[in-house]
Design the sequence.
């Protein structure tokens, strides 16, 4: 695969409050700054390496919370020299608007700039297929479409949103006919059987003029406020004093790019992406993502499992010894231990909330 | 309560392999060298303090494994200057024989020496009642009986052996009519209702001549071998080279004082002991011993319980956060974490055995 043209930019959304993978993920080191499962590197590193030979470091941009900027820089290093630090998490429409305006002011070539919006905490097993899907999406974006990567489903997953394919636009792109919320199991099965539904991974490709026009239409007040910060050509929003950004951000309504733009625009397309994609949303998802033993256990680090079934165990040091457990998650990380049933792993934020209520900062 | 006469000696059995309360208890620091539950001091310290003003430190003797002698000395300090270090755990008949011979050679007064045999890891809540029971038992011992403290039961416990009261011997002592193994629940209920059964706590009082005569009769070969070590009067067996003791011990059959002597002797008595006694045998027993919250949870140290029921949680440092658990034991101690269902807490030795098989010494 050859490198993409120098008009193509990758925007990596690397936010997150660090609750879903507590105690490994924390406020200052959310999931993308952790190595999950048996990974040797953080998810952010993997995300950046995936772009090597595809998009040069100088055209990569990480958007993250200002609290996480230092730890993010430390991990990304030379693999991504550009950052936008949000003073507050105000959902994806604002983050992507800021990124689009940043690229608009920095871009110097003659070709229309194209932006690929990625997440720093996704698993993508098939990198070549990913790159091909992105190329297909770029072709669609050049024709003025907001193009989504639609993940080809391999099971009736109830945890993801779905994209319905509409009319064919080209050899690889289709119009999006509808977006569907996370379905019940029976509905998910019918989606899978129909062959016409794809998972929405939140991976978007569009040209900068297209997305800016859409955002100007969808959130004009926010766009005007952001432009009022007067980003410098060639430097972009990194030159804005953080206090100005803070005062603008405080006034922005929290809205996702899906609600603000994608669900209302007439120019939304999708390309198939059979790329081994996973969004590991909680501890119990590890057993669905990585190979388990015959008793459906999965363990990483210094662990010992005796007479266990369906156990997820992870330790960053101390020995975690599990005896006679069924469907339990046990994680030792960063001076704390989490123990919960696998089907309660989604509720781990309750612990984080209790720690906040106790002002127990050392574990947040 | 006044101090007992200077012919009364306390022998404190402080053995144990450190498996039942793993990871807090270890080979070199078994249960009696740990603070269990919300205790501020180790069980051995509590055991020794209980004797203050009752039996002077100079007439206390700890019998322990030679591996544990240094850690035991460190904890006991001046509260017990006398030790016998067993090269190998060969059950209570041999340990108490060694202790009896030691006291026989060291005792210098005119009065017949009396020995009280205690365990270093028992909970005794009512110390005054304990002392009164011991006095009653001494009276019986002076009449040539091997006298047991019979714990007055307050529930149909199936985990302890029972003593059946026989004919009255004095105002406080009865002949033992029979020993009963750990009963099934229905039988235990009938024992409780009858009012004639007491728990066998393994707390014995006897005169040195009586127990030595019984042991000479019961285990003559072992007694001859131990006497062959030639303990010095006034110094006792502490002067024996450990290598001699080791070679003698290797030849001794493993047998308990119950089987060797108490179950066969005709001169066994019992006194009531309503002393708030507990033998905490495993992690799940803490919830039966200490006060729990309304959801039957019990927790010590740096722990957080959310939506839990019947959980036992203990931490010596790191935060242990339990979410949505039912009847689970979670213990963080000394660089290891144990997680198991409460009804599997008795099987924690499986972990210790697996660690031994792996030669994972750092957690043993």
Sequence:
């Amino acid at each position: 695969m050859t490198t993409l043209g120098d008009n193509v930019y990758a925007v990596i959304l690397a936010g997150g409050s660090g609750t879903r993978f507590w105690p490994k993920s924390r406020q200052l080191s959310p999931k993308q700054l952790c190595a999950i499962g048996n990974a040797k590197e953080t998810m952010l590193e993997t995300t950046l390496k995936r772009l090597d030979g595809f998009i040069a470091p100088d055209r990569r941009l990480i958007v993250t919370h200002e609290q996480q900027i230092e730890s993010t820089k430390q991990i990304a290093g030379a693999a991504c020299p550009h950052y936008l630090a949000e003073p507050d998490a105000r959902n994806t429409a604002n983050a992507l608007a800021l990124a689009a305006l940043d690229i608009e002011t920095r871009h110097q070539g003659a070709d229309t700039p194209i932006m690929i919006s990625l997440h720093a905490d996704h698993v993508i097993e098939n990198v070549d297929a990913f790159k091909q899907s992105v190329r297909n999406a770029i072709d669609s974006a050049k024709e003025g479409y907001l193009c989504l990567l639609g993940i080809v489903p391999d099971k009736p997953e109830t945890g993801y949103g779905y994209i319905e394919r509409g009319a064919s636009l080209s050899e690889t792109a289709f119009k999006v006919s509808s977006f569907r919320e996370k379905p019940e199991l029976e509905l998910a099965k019918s989606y899978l059987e129909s062959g016409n539904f794809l998972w929405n991974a939140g991976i978007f490709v569009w040209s900068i003029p297209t997305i800016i026009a859409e955002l100007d239409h969808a959130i004009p007040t926010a766009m005007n406020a952001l432009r009022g910060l007067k980003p410098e050509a060639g430097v972009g929003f990194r030159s804005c004093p953080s206090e100005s950004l803070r005062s603008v951000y405080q006034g922005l309504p929290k809205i996702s790019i899906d609600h603000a733009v994608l669900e209302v625009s007439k120019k939304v397309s999708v390309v198939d992406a059979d790329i081994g994609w996973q969004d590991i949303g909680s501890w119990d998802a590890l057993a669905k993502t990585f190979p388990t033993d015959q008793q459906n256990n999965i363990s990483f680090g210094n662990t010992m499992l005796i007479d266990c079934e369906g156990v997820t165990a992870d330790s960053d040091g101390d020995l975690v010894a599990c005896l006679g457990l069924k469907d339990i998650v046990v994680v030792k990380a960063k001076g704390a231990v989490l123990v919960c049933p696998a089907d309660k792993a989604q509720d781990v934020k309750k612990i984080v909330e209790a720690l906040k209520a106790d002002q127990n900062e050392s574990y947040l």
Q: What stands out?
A: The CA atoms of residues 61 and 82 of chain A lie 5 Å apart. Residues 283-363 of chain A form one domain.
